[in-house]
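Treating backbone geometry as a discrete language has practical consequences that deserve illustration. The sequence in question and its structure tokens are set out directly beneath this paragraph.
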Amino acid sequence: MASSPKLPAFDPADPLGVDDLLEPEDLAIRDTVRTWATDRVLPHIAEWYENGELPGIRDLARELGSIGALGMSLDGYGCAGASAVQYGLACLELEAADSGIRSLVSVQGSLAMYAIHRFGSEEQKQTWLPRMAAGEVIGCFGLTEPDHGSDPANMRTHAKREGGGDWVLNGRKMWITNGSVAGVAVVWAQTEDGIRGFVVPTDSPGFSAPEIKHKWSLRASVTSELVLDDVRLPADAVLPEVTGLRGPLSCLSHARYGIVWGAMGAARSSFEAAVEYAKSREQFGRPIGGFQLTQAKLADMAVELHKGILLAHHLGRRMDAGRLRPEQVSFGKLNNVREAIDICRTARTILGANGISLEYPVMRHATNLESVLTYEGTVEMHQLVLGKALTGLDAFR
């Protein structure tokens, strides 16, 4: 009788053996981004978060460009042409360091660069994408307005043709990541022909981007308002290949896909902190990790963490195959961000009072995820997207 094959050892860091699904190149990209984040972000992130700043953001952007992390899933124009799974792995590692760092990369690549790459003219692509891929130019994406977040169809920012075909933009955008450090902004505005996207150099007269202060979430991230007062642009500043909400919504779907992975990075960091703390913290004469209630918490956290990673991986494979639907992205963002917050909150209970200290990453991740929960689609919006898909009935209005 043949003997049974020897089973691999149980790996607490990869209990489901998800790494077996990854190719050597996937692992190499993941490890490159993890090493960069460990060396360049983790030693400083608590101080950056406490001070509410991201110093040296332009240097960080150039470094991220040098490892191919900016616009990494795009082809050509200096972009890495990585797979969706590889991009997702990078997002996970970046957000394991901090959500603000992943947001920098996500807005640069999945929103600003993606919009130009998919909908821009060849001249726009050649002008901006190589420099953005290298991190020499930072981009931002202007869609959300002070009075129109979940309802962008009613945005007030508008663009009108004047003179020999020039465009003149007026309006306000709010909660714009990278805004005050960007060299280029992709701004969406109402026109006579419908909603159009515009490539706006941020040194254009009438453009300003005052930074938003007093945030208690995403503190290590540059967040701004965009102010457009009679910003005059040439006729070829408009993105020529799209009209209507399909443009910005397709960009958001691409960015939300990165969040599906990224949220699991924040959850993993908090989970790992809880495990290590539970093994070393002693109460009643032994480590708290030896008590049943603590082990129950850790087991439940591990189950949701690795289910979320499996979900992200599945969606990544679908994206690589050209089969990922926006409703499936909503499924992933709704589940993974919600579960990541719960993991962080449970980790905080294991750390007790130490859980609120910046000596540990848990509270920082938890507060960051409160922003991730509602940006690029609130919980309610993703629930309604899925509700419509399940019933065929539109409950948005």
